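thoughts on both lines:
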Amino acid sequence: MRLAMMDAGLPEPELQIYLDPGDPWSPSADAGYRRFRIAVQYDGAPHLTRERQSKDNLRDEAFSRAGWTYFKANANDLAEGFVSLIARIKRAKLHSA
């Protein structure tokens, strides 16, 4: 996902971006742009359990409550080379600049 984002002309994202960088227990997303308050999470097979989905929902809500634009990607996004996801990130980035 990170490589596809960069190949599409987006800047290199920060990896494992914490909502509160000073708190090691803070919710985190797989990648993002703190400057633009954009977070991206790839939810693969390990995220399909009930327990994991509950934790993921709390993470997702924390980023949204904090005013971040939050994107979730999955195997469908991977199959299409993240094209739609990247387009949505670019639109969000342009609106937040």
Notes: Strands lie at 14-18, 28-33, 38-42, 69-73.
